[in-house]
């Protein structure tokens, strides 16, 4: 989490892509607000919910499909950078 806390979405995902290209297996602890950022690039997401009275926890695991990751990446303007906002018919 600390490695990503000050990075924007595009750079966070680029860093994960780099680590994966190096063949590293990542384990990232991140708050819920980073979930959408990381869903595109993670193979498994484990969420831990704790009961407010701290007497129990619930653990759920998800495995985002490649099609879902591609769909998220396609609509994520942060992933595309400024190019994601340019219209093909806009004057140069």
Poorly predicted tracts of residues: none
Count of individual helical segments: 4
Question: Given the C-alpha coordinates, what overall shape results?
Answer: globular
- Helix amount: 25-40%
Kindly provide the radius of gyration, computed on alpha-carbon positions and rounded to a whole number of angstroms.
16 Å
Q: Strands of the biggest beta sheet: in what spatial order? A: 1-2
Average pLDDT, all residues: 77
Tell me the count of domains. 1
The biggest sheet, with number of strands, parallel, antiparallel or mixed sense and barrel status, is: 2 strands, antiparallel
Structural class: alpha+beta
Beta-strand percentage range:
5-15%
Gap from first CA to last CA: 40 Å
Element order: H for helix, E for strand: HHEEHH
Concise structural overview:
Helix content is 35%, strand content 13%. The chain has 92 residues and is an alpha+beta fold. It has one domain (9-80).
Give an overview of the whole structure.
- Helices cover 35% and strands 13% of the residues.
- With 92 residues, it is an alpha+beta fold.
- It has one domain.
- Strands 1-2 form a two-stranded antiparallel sheet.
């Amino acid at each position: 989490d600390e490695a990503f806390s000050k990075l924007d979405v595009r750079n966070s995902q680029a860093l994960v892509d780099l680590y994966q290209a190096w063949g590293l297996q990542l384990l990232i602890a991140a708050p819920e607000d980073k979930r959408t950022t990381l869903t595109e690039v993670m193979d498994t997401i484990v969420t831990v919910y704790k009961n407010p009275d701290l007497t129990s926890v619930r653990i759920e695991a998800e495995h985002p499909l490649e099609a879902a990751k591609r769909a998220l990446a396609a609509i994520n303007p942060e992933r595309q950078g400024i190019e994601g906002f340019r219209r093909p018919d806009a004057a140069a």
